[in-house]
Write a structure and sequence with these properties.
The chain is α+β, with helices and mostly antiparallel strands and 262 residues long. The protein is 44% helix and 12% strand. The chain has 2 domains: 65 residues, 434 Repressor (Amino-terminal Domain), CATH 1.10.260.40; 175 residues, Beta-Lactamase, CATH 3.30.450. Strands 2-1-5-4-3 form a 5-stranded antiparallel β-sheet. α1 packs across α3 and α9 packs antiparallel against α10. The mean pLDDT is 93. This is Transcriptional regulator with XRE-family HTH domain.
């Protein structure tokens, strides 16, 4: 994890080490001398905002942390952070709503970078039915809702397999972003039961290519696979953290049930 630091040089050094890059590797990729990069990391040289952004882009630093670097270097942030309800993000809201509505009658949800629920279509109710009210109070964390024993977990037919998939995905996200909130969430979710025992047998065709979610609903086991959609070229911190999690039926029986529920 990136530690709490106060200088831009320390931040750059921590991100470089987290990406397993040497000063030589990074200097070659960015086109600066190793000596100059060393001076920046030790505080002997004050980097320009342009250099900070070039280094941050090469290190694939999230937009919010790029702003932190700029502030630590004595420069203004480069990326705005609007609330999703602000007028500036009206086209984003419209695009999200179009995708959610267009995905019906299949479940879809918008989550932020900490997996908190931002919006969803009505079909998501197939997953939330039966969950404890305290897990559905805002802000709803969809990973906590999924794996908590009072949430979706008792109805996930292949819980060990699905749990392993979610924890691995969260672990990779935490490693990539160095976000302490994601590490805290990962530690919490690891304490939930459901990881022991063999996965339930799966015979549908989709299981040979993706990890399916098999979910018990009113006496029937529904089978899904999921996709994640991100904004391709975000320049706003809020937009950069949004993702659309869409679930598709993995067999005709599931598709028929979802159409009937709609």
């Amino acid at each position: 994890m990136v530690t709490t630091t106060t200088t831009v040089g320390e931040l750059l050094r921590d991100w470089r080490r987290s990406r397993r890059m040497s000063q030589l590797d990074l200097s070659i990729e960015v086109g600066v001398s190793t000596r100059h990069l060393s001076f920046v990391e030790t505080g002997r040289s004050r980097p320009s905002p342009e250099l900070i952004l070039r280094l941050a882009e090469q290190l694939d630093v999230p937009l919010a942390d790029r702003n932190t670097m700029l502030l630590a270097g004595g420069h203004a942030p480069a990326y705005p952070r609007h609330e999703l309800g602000d007028p500036e993000l009206a086209p984003v809201r419209a695009a999200l709503r179009q995708i959610l509505d267009g995905h019906s009658p299949y479940p879809a949800a918008v989550v932020d970078r900490h997996w908190q629920l931002v919006d969803a279509n009505p079909a998501l109710a197939v997953f939330t039915a039966g969950a404890a009210p305290e897990l559905l109070g805002a802000p709803v964390n969809v990973l906590r809702l999924s794996l908590h024993p009072d949430g979706m977990a008792p109805r996930i037919h292949n819980l060990p397999e699905w749990r392993a998939h979610l924890l691995n995905r969260l672990r990779q996200q935490a490693l990539t972003t160095n976000d302490p909130m994601l590490y805290e969430l990962l530690d919490e979710l690891r304490t939930y039961p459901g990881g022991a025992g063999p996965a339930a047998p799966i015979n549908d065709a989709v299981s040979s290519v993706v990890v399916p979610l098999r979910y018990r609903h009113e006496g029937q086991v529904l089978s899904f696979f999921s996709t994640t959609t991100l904004f391709g070229t975000p320049l706003d911190v809020t937009v950069a953290g949004l993702a659309i999690e869409a679930f598709f039926p993995a067999d005709p029986a599931t598709a028929e049930t979802l159409r009937a529920l709609a």
